[in-house]
Write a structure and sequence with these properties.
Length: 448
């Protein structure tokens, strides 16, 4: 392999934009993915159907919006305007949740479920156009195969920092003892962040030079481009990459929407900020170190060990159930060990599969291929994952009233079972991805 020194270097302005919009966008998605679910479970109803509807409908609207946003990015040749102004509006939709009535009477529960789901869908539309479509297209523009594993792993780590900010600074506003007023303050504060970030980005971010509008095809053709059988056939390896992280994301969605209530309620760990903080730091450090090695050495030898580590991590977390009310120290230790493996593996898989996916995107089609990414990373996982979770929760709580439901540790076993399927795309990717990476590195070196 030729030396890669210099060809993967990014400017400070580019890194600043990556980190700014990555962090603030993930703060918004942490609120959407974890705290909206907690809000639904704690303030509206604990019945799992409500969380399933919330996640599934949000995924559908996010997918359609990303398809539209990706097409707009390529047709206009612009990314910054959709990112910055989208973030500004995104913040307002989050703050609007402060107006939702809480603790409804039994006959008002279903209308409130519908209201929260509808508001979440509006928030997802704006967030998906600005973040999932426009921001991810921009990241593809400004990166190359010599830095993508590092950038994509950092982007996968950023949600942990976002979670740390939200969790460490504002979680007390949303826990089981939270008041209506504290929830309202929480949503307003979380809404201010994307809005301010969007205004800052207007001065910081720059679109890559040389991008021209591409209106060769109709908008409908651009909208459906990445979902056509002919496109899939022409770009088989790209979709194999996407399928790998899709499977990992399905496993992640089995437990993530219930994670806070599992730690606080099922495991009965009241002072959970410290162990969760340790998990975040360890998972982030390990995944970033591995991503640097992947960029230098290639990804071939990381696929199988990563999957095995994820399965082991889920089993370790599950085993903590046997120490509840018996040995808090052992219970916490298992949570930290298993959580570091499970969360860390999800981050490393983003570096493995997403970076490879970007390498296979044809030049000039960066925006059009964001649609298939959101279908396989968001729509499918956020429908299938919660359905699996609902089945596990319902089975574990047979005959229990909705207000008494306990979210079972078996959700982690469900995730482990799903992760085993990642061996299938990994088998096809290991050798082919190594060859493709080598080819792109050589092209970059020769053109330098």
């Amino acid at each position: 392999m030729k030396k890669t020194k210099g060809i993967g270097k990014l400017s400070s302005r580019t890194w600043g934009s990556i980190l700014l919009f990555g962090l603030i966008g993930q703060i918004a998605w942490v609120v959407e993915n974890m705290y909206f679910s907690r809000f639904m479970q704690n303030e509206i109803t604990r019945a799992p159907y409500a969380t399933t509807l919330l996640v599934a409908f949000s995924a559908v609207f996010a997918t359609v919006s990303t398809l539209i946003g990706g097409a707009l990015c390529d047709r206009t040749g612009k990314r910054k305007v959709f990112i910055c102004w989208g973030y500004v509006l995104w913040g307002f939709t989050i703050a609007a949740f402060s107006l939702v009535p809480m603790k409804p009477e039994p006959d008002k529960v279903l209308p409130m479920v519908i209201l929260v789901v509808a508001m979440d869908c509006i928030m997802s539309v704006i967030g998906s156009i600005s973040n999932d479509a426009s921001y991810n297209t921009w990241v593809t523009d400004v990166t190359n195969t010599a830095n993508r594993a590092r950038v994509d792993t950092i982007l996968a780590v950023i949600p942990l920092f976002a979670m740390a900010i939200v969790f460490g600074g504002f979680d007390s506003m949303t826990n089981s003892t939270a008041t209506v007023e504290s929830w309202q303050k929480f949503f307003v504060i979380m809404g201010i962040m994307p809005t301010v970030g969007g205004f800052v980005g207007l001065f910081l971010m720059r679109d890559k030079k040389g991008i021209k509008p591409n209106k060769t095809n109709s908008f409908f053709n651009d909208f459906t481009y990445s979902l056509r059988p002919s496109t899939i056939k022409q770009n088989k390896m790209l979709y194999v990459c996407l399928s790998g992280y899709m499977i990992a994301s399905i496993g992640y969605q089995v437990y993530i929407n219930y994670l806070f209530n599992i730690v606080e309620g099922t495991l009965k760990i009241k002072n959970y900020i410290i162990p969760v903080g340790i998990i975040m730091v360890l998972a982030a450090v390990i995944s970033v170190v591995l991503s640097v090695i992947m960029d230098k050495k290639g990804k071939r030898n990381f696929y199988y060990p990563t999957i095995i580590a994820g399965v082991i991590g889920c089993i370790v977390i599950w085993s903590a159930k046997f120490f509840v009310d018996k040995n808090p120290m052992a219970e916490t230790a298992l949570l930290i060990i298993g959580g570091t493996l499970a969360i860390g593996v999800n981050l490393v898989m983003a570096g493995l599969f997403t970076a490879s996916y970007r390498d296979y995107i044809p030049s000039g089609k960066e925006g059009l291929f964001q649609g298939c990414r959101i279908v396989m990373y968001v729509l499918v996982p956020m429908i299938i994952g919660p359905i699996i979770a609902q089945a596990i929760i319902s089975f574990a709580n047979r005959g229990v009233e909705s207000q008494d439901i306990v979210y079972p540790m078996e959700l982690f076993l469900g995730c482990a079972a799903v992760l085993l399927l990642c061996f299938i795309p990994s088998y096809y990717l290991r050798d082919e991805d190594a060859k493709h990476h080598e080819m792109l590195i050589n092209e970059l070196t020769e053109s330098k």
